[in-house]
Every structure is written in C-alpha cells, then in structure tokens.
Amino acid sequence: METSTYTARIIRPSEGMAITQAADVPLTERMVARGELWLAVTDDPENYVEITEEQAQAYEAEIAAYIKAEEEAREAEEEAKRTAAAAQAQAEQQAEIQAQIDAAKPKTK
Questions:
Q1: Residue 13 pLDDT greater than 90, yes or no
Q2: DSSP string spanning the chain?
Q3: pTM of the entire predicted model
C-alpha cells in the first residue's frame, strides 16, 4: 500500500479585503478573490496581495468593460461580414438579371 500526504496552502483575505495577483498581469488574466484561494503546489502566497473592496470593484468593472467591448467588437465584425455577404449576393443577383435582360434583347446586325 502506498500512502501520500499533501499539504494544502490556502490564503484568505482579511475582513473587507480581497486577493489578487501581485504581478502586473493582463486584464484577461486578472482575478479577484474574496474567499479562500487554494494554491497549486507550484504557487506561492507571495504571488498575491490583498486589495480593498473598492480596488476589487474597480478591477471587476474594468474586466466587465473589457469583456463587453470584446463582445461588441465581435458582434460588429459579424454584422460587417453579414452585410458584405448580403451586398455580394445582391450584386450577383443584379448581374444575373442584367445578363438575362441582355440575352433577351434582339440581336441587330
């Protein structure tokens, strides 16, 4: 039988505080924790700092604004693609109609 023992490192913010990464990480990787944070065996408590509730809310608002802007940009790109496809289809249809009109005209010599 093999037995293994693991030690879990858990950090908790002080009352009214939150935890976030100490490093300057990209907004897409920023996390804010108000409860327990269980660290991986390769992680270190020094990689985190306590922040005030106001700072936590500011980070969360910034993250939410970033996500909203990304979603709006994606939606605008999709709408532009749909508009371009519709314009292309309309141009092809008009070209086909013009070709039919031209084919129906009597030939004169």
A1: yes
A2: --------EEE-PPTTEEEEESS---GGG--EESS-EEEPTT--GGGEEEEEHHHHHHHHHHHHHHHHHHHHHHHHHHHHHHHHHHHHHHHHHHHHHHHHHHHHSPP--
A3: 0.65
